[in-house]
Write a structure and sequence with these properties.
alpha/beta, 12% strand, globular, five-stranded parallel sheet, 5 strands
Length: 227
Amino acid sequence: MTTRKVFLVAGAAADGSAATACASDSAAKEPFASFAFDQARFASMLGKPARHRQCFGAAQIAGGDVLRQMLNSMNAYEYTLKEGSGAMHAAAVLYHGHVVALGMNDRAWNELVIPAIPKMSEPMRKGMPAGLKPGSGNPYWHESKIKSPQYDASIEALVLRRASFFICNNALVGTANVIATALGKHQAEVYKQLAASTVPGSLLVPAGVMAINACQDARFTYIQATL
């Protein structure tokens, strides 16, 4: 007699086999999409001690709106509620489309992102910053001239306040393809450069949805930052 438990176990095994085969096929066709996931560092970043934890999911660059939301929440605990520095661990998961570019360094922006933007098709260009000067780097990375952490929503300033950034590898592969097409480059080469260009305080993860789930398992409150 086949019980429900046996059926579910058998189904899960079949699904796992299919997924493994699919993953193997993908890896054979796209070896550049494989990377060594640093699980120990991921666990360490999730485990930063903090009384409060919030995970901000971002699917669009949207002018860096996710960064401002992180800043507002960190300020609420540190300044308004007077719980002190490090009371809240803000973690951003950049998980869809070109939002992964937020976590790329100046070289990646200067050599790949900025030159590619005007050459992308209109649908692919949607949401990307406009009017960037060649060589101006990542407009969301560096500390502002304000020099006050309470008002600085740059990635650099947020990381100094112990924020974390998780970058979806699946989205990075897609972005590499768009940039490679725009610039007439090989996708594997673009992917390799992007994967090596993540900013300090960030980590490339297998999938953004996986990172969001891991954050929730680690008692982070989930906030969708780009609705």
